[in-house]
């Protein structure tokens, strides 16, 4: 029973607010170690360190008195002038989350990141895909030294009136045969200047790859359109569509390169020749190959129709 009363009396001892910085300053000024102070007060050096770092801003009055005695100063020297703080030990570090709590937090973070990525992807996919203003068509194949067609279609719709400059860089050594509309050309570039309007425009031209071009390689085309709209600055876009022709023993109308022009290939070739009439395309040879069993090409004789 007496032991119980002692514990109750001890728990009712008043607390006082201590000044940790002042305690450390006094101890260091007097050149006293934490170990010495701890042994006089009857606590561990870790406790002294916590007091000096204000981890326990309030301690029991008798401990504060022992601390003052160890530092050889009056009790008031180690106390704070402000109001009393909670009992010693009431300020505790936050509890460490359990493994289950950490797993739950990670799961929530992963879910949020997934949702954000999904929303981002949703909005990106919802953005309209703007087609190029200028789109190039070329045949898949052509033979060295032979004439083949190229077309660039510029889309213009009502309400989107604009003029433009169209530039097309030719493959190395290629020769411009003819073009519609008329163009300005140099050894390596063809240019069109088209005034403002709303109707679509097709720039058609024929090229001839040099006979010395190595078979089995691609001839590359590259172009740009400079769009000018009234009241706004110029806008430059790359020409879209196909940009290379495979050079070898092929006719340009033979779209699959199987050595003949079949029923599926003759009509597209006919439409191209009609659209580009007068630009140097040889319709008679195309028709003869279609009527025969195929063709053979060599650099010396050109196209030979197989009967």
Features:
307 residues, alpha+beta, 434 Repressor (Amino-terminal Domain), Immunoglobulin-like, 2 domains, 5-stranded mixed beta sheet, 5-stranded antiparallel beta sheet, 32% helix, disordered N terminus, Cro/C1-type_HTH, transmembrane helix, Helix-turn-helix domain-containing protein, transmembrane, membrane
CATH class of the largest domain, please? Mainly Beta
Q: What count of domains describes the coordinates?
A: 2
CATH topology (fold) name of the largest domain? Immunoglobulin-like
Describe the global form: rod-shaped
Largest sheet: 5 strands, mixed
- How many H/I helical runs? 8
Low-confidence stretches: 1-11, 83-92
Output the radius of gyration.
Answer: 45 Å
CATH architecture of the largest domain: Sandwich
The number of E-state strands comes to 17
The helix fraction, in percent, is: 25-40%
Structural class: alpha+beta
Average predicted local confidence, pLDDT: 85
- One letter per element, helices H and strands E, the order comes to HEHHHEHHEEEEEEEEEEEEEHHEE
Placed side by side, the strands forming the largest sheet appear as 7-10-5-3-14
End-to-end gap: 126 Å
DSSP strand content? 25-35%
Short description:
By secondary structure, the protein is an alpha+beta fold.
Describe the structure.
The protein is α+β, with helices and mostly antiparallel strands and 307 residues long. It folds into two domains: 7-78, 434 Repressor (Amino-terminal Domain) (Orthogonal Bundle), CATH 1.10.260.40; 135-306, Sandwich (Immunoglobulin-like), CATH 2.60.40.740. It is built from eight helices and 17 strands. The protein has a five-stranded mixed β-sheet with strand order 7-10-5-3-14, with no helix packed on it. Strands 8-9-6-12-13 form a five-stranded antiparallel β-sheet, with no helix packed on it. A hairpin with a 3-residue loop joins β8 (184-185) and β9 (189-197). α3 crosses α4, α3 (34-41) packs across α5 (61-71) and α7 (263-275) runs antiparallel to α8. The longest helix has 28 residues, at 99-126. The chain is rod-shaped. The N and C termini lie far apart (126 Å). Residues 23-78 form the HTH cro/C1-type domain. It comes from Geomonas subterranea. Residues 78-100 are annotated as: Disordered. The chain crosses the membrane at residues 104-125. Keywords: Membrane, Transmembrane, Transmembrane helix.
């Amino acid at each position: 029973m007496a032991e119980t009363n002692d514990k109750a009396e001890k728990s009712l001892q008043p607390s006082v607010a201590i000044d940790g910085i002042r305690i450390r300053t006094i101890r260091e000024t007097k050149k006293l170690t934490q170990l010495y102070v701890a042994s006089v007060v009857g606590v561990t050096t870790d406790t002294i360190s916590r007091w000096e770092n204000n981890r326990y801003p309030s301690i029991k009055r008798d401990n504060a008195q022992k601390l003052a005695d160890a530092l050889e100063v009056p009790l008031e020297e180690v106390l704070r002038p402000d109001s009393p703080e909670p009992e010693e030990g009431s300020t505790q570090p936050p509890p460490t989350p359990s493994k289950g709590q950490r797993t739950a937090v990670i799961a929530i973070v992963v879910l949020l990141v997934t949702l954000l990525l999904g929303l981002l992807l949703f909005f990106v996919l919802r953005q309209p895909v703007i087609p190029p203003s200028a789109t190039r068509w070329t045949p898949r194949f052509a033979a060295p030294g032979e004439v083949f067609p190229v077309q660039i279609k510029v889309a213009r719709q009502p309400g989107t009136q604009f003029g433009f400059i169209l530039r097309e860089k030719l493959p190395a050594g290629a020769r411009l045969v003819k073009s519609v509309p008329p163009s300005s050309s140099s050894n390596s570039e063809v240019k069109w200047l088209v005034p403002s309007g709303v109707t679509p425009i097709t720039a058609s031209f024929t090229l001839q790859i040099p006979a010395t071009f190595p078979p089995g390689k691609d001839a590359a085309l590259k172009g740009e359109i400079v769009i000018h709209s009234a009241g706004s600055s110029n806008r430059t876009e790359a020409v879209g569509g196909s940009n290379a022709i495979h050079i070898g023993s092929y006719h340009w109308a033979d779209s699959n390169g199987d050595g003949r022009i079949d029923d599926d290939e003759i009509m597209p070739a006919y439409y191209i020749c009609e659209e580009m009439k007068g630009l140097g395309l040889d319709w008679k040879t195309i028709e003869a190959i279609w009527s025969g069993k195929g063709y053979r090409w060599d650099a010396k004789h050109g196209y030979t129709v197989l009967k």
